[in-house]
């Protein structure tokens, strides 16, 4: 256990090692560690941001979906109303047309009846003249006349 | 080491491989040396006779080796360091670096980017030097004696030269930063005007503060040396037991020393940081 030059040698070695460590070992290691810390922090921040974005997007999607549903409901309602209206209009029109056709038919019938009656009246006169002629030619027989008149009236 | 008495065995294990200058007039192998010669010591007496002019080759070699292992390993990782997913080795290295970084952040209140790497070097280097102790005490000496090297003491921190060497390094840094931060005047003032702030007591303050200052490297070196040396002696004593009984004591002592090795390295680092922090503080 002698104290000797070894001590000084050890001190010199100590300083050499320290200088080497200070220059070549410590800086790159600490740099790498700091870089990693920064990277991790950035990554966490990015994931936070992404989460927020996702939440916002979800909210927007929900809202848009609700709006779309509302709009669809409105459209369906409008369409229903319009359809009802169309049906209603068609019904009215049909009824009106029916009425009109009916009236027209009635008019025609009336007209034809009138014509028939007129024709008949003309016919009756002719018949009456023919009957009178016949009566004047043959003797007047009450019985025969009445029979003739009956025939005449039956002809009307 | 058959044929040795236990005292010789222990003595042998605690002797460093010494290269130094034998003084003139030293009697070696029956002949007296004519002049001072640089030579490898062949016995503990020779090593003692060399005095201050000697090197412990084994201590220097092992401490340099551990230091180089540390730097090469860490440099390799540092060069390939990625900020993406780190590999296993990088993870380990980063764990150590982060550990020292946190410690420096909590303990050191000044602003000096040098303290981190200093603390890292101290911690890992001392840890590796201490770790050599976990190699069974006879392995390396048996190998080296097989190639003709008589003495080998592989754990540098069981050599007071190594611990004092590092403590002196810390002490020099304390002086350097004290003067750098406070200036020569400020540092002198600190040494002479506290704790008693009166000019007539400045001589007393100077003695007090100098003792306080010198105590730091002493306690630093002796604490590490004492712990490591005592542990080593116990290991050697256990190695004297019959081989079939050694494990009963060796295993618990070894497990305990896994803790001691780390703890002493940690303490050495923490005290280094604290002393340097004190050097940065104005009183």
Automatic annotation (TrEMBL), chain A:
Its main location: membrane. It is a single-pass membrane protein. InterPro entries: ATP_synth_B-like_membr_sf, ATP_synth_b/b'su_bac/chlpt, ATP_synth_F0_bsu_bac, ATP_synthase_B_chain. GO terms for molecular function: hydrolase activity; proton-transporting ATP synthase activity, rotational mechanism; proton-transporting ATPase activity, rotational mechanism. Keywords: ATP synthesis, Cell inner membrane, Cell membrane, CF(0), Coiled coil, Hydrogen ion transport, Hydrolase, Ion transport, Membrane, Transmembrane, Transmembrane helix, Transport. Residues 47-126 form a coiled coil. It holds the Pfam family ATP-synt_B. GO terms for cellular component: endomembrane system; plasma membrane; proton-transporting ATP synthase complex. It is found in: Cell membrane; Endomembrane system. The keyword Ion transport applies. The chain crosses the membrane at residues 6-26. Belongs to the ATPase B chain family. Component of the F(0) channel, it forms part of the peripheral stalk, linking F(1) to F(0). The b'-subunit is a diverged and duplicated form of b found in plants and photosynthetic bacteria. F(1)F(0) ATP synthase produces ATP from ADP in the presence of a proton or sodium gradient. F-type ATPases consist of two structural domains, F(1) containing the extramembraneous catalytic core and F(0) containing the membrane proton channel, linked together by a central stalk and a peripheral stalk. During catalysis, ATP synthesis in the catalytic domain of F(1) is coupled via a rotary mechanism of the central stalk subunits to proton translocation. F-type ATPases have 2 components, F(1) - the catalytic core - and F(0) - the membrane proton channel. F(1) has five subunits: alpha(3), beta(3), gamma(1), delta(1), epsilon(1). F(0) has three main subunits: a(1), b(2) and c(10-14). The alpha and beta chains form an alternating ring which encloses part of the gamma chain. F(1) is attached to F(0) by a central stalk formed by the gamma and epsilon chains, while a peripheral stalk is formed by the delta and b chains. F-type ATPases have 2 components, F(1) - the catalytic core - and F(0) - the membrane proton channel. F(1) has five subunits: alpha(3), beta(3), gamma(1), delta(1), epsilon(1). F(0) has four main subunits: a(1), b(2) and c(10-14). The alpha and beta chains form an alternating ring which encloses part of the gamma chain. F(1) is attached to F(0) by a central stalk formed by the gamma and epsilon chains, while a peripheral stalk is formed by the delta and b chains. This is ATP synthase subunit b. The lineage of its organism: Bacteria, Pseudomonadati, Pseudomonadota, Gammaproteobacteria, Oceanospirillales.
UniProtKB/TrEMBL annotation, chain B:
The keyword Metal-binding does not apply. The chain crosses the membrane at residues 60-78, 162-179, 227-247, 253-276. It holds the Pfam family ATP-synt_A. One of its GO terms (molecular function) is proton-transporting ATP synthase activity, rotational mechanism. Keywords: ATP synthesis, Cell membrane, CF(0), Hydrogen ion transport, Ion transport, Membrane, Transmembrane, Transmembrane helix, Transport. GO terms for biological process: proton motive force-driven plasma membrane ATP synthesis. InterPro entries: ATP_syn_F0_a_bact/chloroplast (IPR045082), ATP_synth_F0_asu (IPR000568), ATP_synth_F0_asu_AS (IPR023011), F0_ATP_A_sf (IPR035908). Belongs to the ATPase A chain family. Key component of the proton channel; it plays a direct role in the translocation of protons across the membrane. This is ATP synthase subunit a. It comes from Halovibrio salipaludis. The gene is atpB.
